[in-house]
UniProtKB/TrEMBL annotation:
Residues 48-134 form the TACO1/YebC-like second and third domain. The keyword Transcription applies. This is YebC/PmpR family DNA-binding regulatory protein. InterPro entries: Integrase-like_N, TACO1_YebC-like_2nd/3rd_dom, TACO1_YebC_N, Transcrip_reg_TACO1-like, Transcrip_reg_TACO1-like_dom3, YebC-like. Residues 2-42 form the TACO1/YebC-like N-terminal domain. The keyword Metal-binding does not apply. It comes from the Bacteria.
Length: 138
């Protein structure tokens, strides 16, 4: 993430998401900073690959597995073992991905919003949104 879009969390949405998820599981800030520095090449050995595996889980359900790794062989073995132990198997490239759509989630705070709610919803629908959820804060 840091190699593709830079090390600034405010301007790199992919990196922001990874940091957000790391903090959600209580990863220490030092570990996060060290990982970002390593990925950016500021420390030795900082090359990471983003890989997507397509597979079928128990009962034939389609599963996309997105991983970020510094060792392709190790992650392949780990993912394969996880699926084999739980009754899943790997599919060919393109066998599962066509069933999924990449979606985004955008939150806009009400504070400072200079457009009324109805106008905002109409413009969002015209832009192709799947839906708008309105709350008191956002």
């Amino acid at each position: 993430m840091a190699t593709n879009g830079g090390t600034d969390v405010d301007t790199n949405a992919s990196l922001w998401l990874v940091v957000y998820r790391a903090k959600a599981v209580n990863m220490p800030n030092d570990n996060i900073k060290r990982a970002i520095d390593k990925a950016a090449g500021n420390k030795s050995g900082g090359h990471y690959d983003e890989i997507t595996y397509e597979s079928y889980g128990p009962g034939g359900i389609a599963v996309l597995v997105h991983v970020l790794t510094d060792n392709r062989n190790r992650i392949w073995a780990n993912v394969r073992v996880a699926f084999n132990k739980n009754g899943g198997n790997f599919g060919e490239t393109g066998s599962v991905a066509y069933m999924f759509d990449c979606k985004g989630y955008i939150v806009i705070e009400r504070e400072g919003l200079e457009v009324d709610e109805d106008t905002f919803m109409l413009e969002a629908i015209e832009a192709g949104t799947d839906g708008v959820i309105v709350s008191d804060e956002a």
